Amino acid sequence: MTNAIKFAIVTLAMIGTLASNAAAAQEKKVKIEDVPAAVKKAIKKAVGGGELVDIGEITADDEKTYEIEMHVDGKEIDVVFDATGQEISRSDEGAVAPKKKAKADKADKKGQDKSGDQFQHDFGLEDREFSTTGRNRYFILEPGYQQVLEGKDGDHDARLQVTVLDDTKEIGGIQTRVVEERETVDGKLVEVSRNFFAICKSTGSVFYFGEEVDIYRDGKVIDHEGAWLHGRDNAQAGIMMPGECLIGAAYYQEYAPKQAMDRARIQDVSATIKTPAGEFSNCLKVWEENPLDGDSETKTFAPGVGLVQDEGLLLVKHGFVK
Q1: What is residue 110's predicted lDDT score, i.e. its pLDDT?
Q2: Average pLDDT over residues 163-180
Q3: Looking at residue 7, what is its pLDDT?
């Protein structure tokens, strides 16, 4: 057999292997709420104040990677992450093509037409009197109260523990109560946040004055993404839970430009939901959105209990702890 023939055979074998590998890889478009928590945080950090265009989930040899297209500073950038949120590759595709930019502008305009100015963000804080302890129909702000929710985050087991602490913190001249949230995925701690709330004495509305965030990887703090405080960098407190809940009411929960802009709209006040902790009726259903990255989710709150459902997580226990 000549060397030329041998070379041809080897070349064909290599092409066949590459074709086989390419055929084995499968890609599908997904939403940000469908990716693992670690990947979601990595995507949000990468996009920053830019625009997330789309996400592709690629499965090959039973391993998943996530490729995003984003527009940042007028450029189209593609980034690939592994399932732990580690960045694998990044490529600058150059200036955003006019066609794509027009599409993005149209999407932004649609979002503004739909909701933009309808979300309240000025709540007249200077005319209110606040307390660090209290409750309304759907929110308990009393030291020692704790809720635990468990479920799935994509293919992973997730757990959220929310505890009202004895601690208080003064923010912008207002005393607030500290509420700690601890999030774990597959038994590993991924985030701890200390959230600052105060309740309006006259209306019973619970206001949100900011949060301190520690994001973990392999037991170490790697970031503080999402942290903000009322009065710092033009940030303003928002409403976490209105004292009176009306269907269609729309409001900002946090108003920190380019940092944290979560907003909510009340969808239902008579929902029923089954959880491991029991069945609850006359529940409040709230749609929440982060306009900075387009992420959205639905939460359910039960009277006298508080949060009982957060996307794929359901309440497993609640009550006061020592």
Answers
A1: 30
A2: 97
A3: 45
Considering the domain architecture, whether residues 148 and 236 belong to the same structural domain is answered as yes
Domain-located, residue 210 = yes
Give bridge partners of residue 275 from the DSSP assignment.
278
Residues in the chain: 322
The pLDDT value recorded for residue 186 is: 95
Q: Give the domain range for residue 73.
A: 30-100
Per the listing, tokens 């804080």 go with 125
Residues 202 and 257 in one domain: yes
Is position 48 within any domain?
yes
The upper half-sphere exposure of residue 138, i.e. CA atoms within 13 Å in the direction of its Cβ, equals 29
Q: Same domain, yes or no, for 89 and 228? A: no
Q: Does 182 fall in a domain?
A: yes
Contact 297, 286 (CB under 8 A): no
For 235, other C-beta atoms within 10 Å of its C-beta total: 21
pTM for the structure as a whole = 0.66
CATH number for 270: 2.40.360
Q: What is the per-residue DSSP string for 16-29? A: HHHHHHHHH-EEEE
Summarised one tens digit per residue, pLDDT across range 255-280 is 998 888 999 999 999 999 999 999 99
Side-chain-side CA neighbours of 175 within 13 Å: the count stands at 8
Per-residue pLDDT at 16 exceeds 80 = no
Torsion angle of alpha carbons 260, 261, 265, 271, nearest 10°? Answer: -10
Count of domains forming the chain: 2
